[in-house]
Write a structure and sequence with these properties.
This protein has a single domain, classed as Rossmann fold (3-Layer(aba) Sandwich), CATH 3.40.50. By secondary structure, it is of the alpha/beta class. It is 48% helix and 19% strand.
Length: 127
């Protein structure tokens, strides 16, 4: 089975590095971005199976970034996460096409399961 390619976006460099390491140890191929502009560039340059995106980031917030990314790759499953979540953000994210909404700190096993479900949902929707 081909390794799933993940784009992990969070402005907290230490967190994104630790999460990427945990996911790589679980067999995923992980690329990271710490800003909206970097995430958009990576999405334009590479193909990913799942996007994991922090909701609260300086500048362009995660929900706005997701909307922009969905214009480029509407089929890309997006997992939103935040440490400062609200019901309104969760509802908005799900209405705008997020696959799932998780709270920090995330359990790695739960995240891995969610990534696998998101990737499977993408494959099921492909012709």
């Amino acid at each position: 089975m081909e390794r799933l390619r993940i784009l992990l976006v969070d402005d907290e460099e230490d967190l994104v590095g630790a999460m990427a390491e945990h996911l790589a140890l679980r067999g995923f191929q992980v690329e990271t971005a710490t800003s909206a502009s970097e995430a958009l560039r990576r999405l334009h340059e590479d193909q990913f199976d799942v996007l994991i995106l922090d909701v609260k980031m300086p500048g362009t917030g995660g929900l706005n970034l997701m909307a922009e990314m969905k214009k480029q790759r509407p089929d890309l499953p997006v997992i939103l996460f935040t440490g400062h979540g609200s019901v309104a953000d969760a509802e908005r994210g799900m209405q705008e096409g997020a696959f799932e909404y998780l709270m920090k700190p995330m359990d790695v096993d739960e995240l891995v399961e969610t990534i696998c479900r998101a990737a499977a949902s993408k494959k099921e929707s492909e012709p």
